Task: structure prediction
Amino acid sequence: AALLPLRGTAGADVRRLREPQEFFRVLDAHGIAFPPLAFEPPAAPAGWLAKEAGGCGGWQVRRATVADAPAPGRYWQRERRGAAMSATFVGNGRYVVLLGVNRQGTQALGDRPFVFTRIAGPVSVAEPMRRELTAIVRLLAGVFRVRGLASLDVLLEGDRIEVLELNPRAPASIVLYPRVGERGPLTAHLRACERDELPGPQRGDGIVRGSEIVFASQATTMDAARAEALAALPGTCDLPCAGTRIAAGDPLCSVLAEGADEARMDEQLAARREAVRALLET
Result:
């Protein structure tokens, strides 16, 4: 901030969003569903998750234990079934434009059961559910004065939506929407923050895109030859530099894919993920 201006939701509004009591109070006041919540350790922790406010990528979530203790920003939620989804949008502090709905993927890493690994979108949801999601996004973005790119994380179970959190920052899902507005998502973000301008309604291009984090299956050090070969593989990004030491289980890079539908995108994403793993295991 000392060198470059910050463009996004104001700090005071981000702090309100990151305060669990305030965020869930707003949800409750407006009749928006969310998993059962506690601000004290549950007496019987089975079936509960312990969460730390302000975390990201699922690294702030673990299963509750009898050793849990209260701490600033810590809260507990019931573990729920349902599809992990998100809604990507851009706001100007009052109004929003929904860019699309995405399917999220997670995996267990160590004692973290829900680490974010992948996202795909836009995906189709039933029209009543899309309308309800849009209404929730509009309401919360207005209450918390969200500016620029952001996303809402939810669980979908049948026709029921339960809100998990709102992320007032550019989300990982922006790679799924390269054709937002006239010059892409980052320009849309800046225009919303600086000029209150929002892109027009999103019609989509008929392409489903996906992004997945590839985690190292074994410890390795990236020499120059492998770093160059990794960068040459189709769809790779977020690449390590030559000389980087990577522990088993660490994020290695990301792979991107696209297709005419989610199934064909998944096939390409899996092939690119396996190509990365094959390179590292040779």
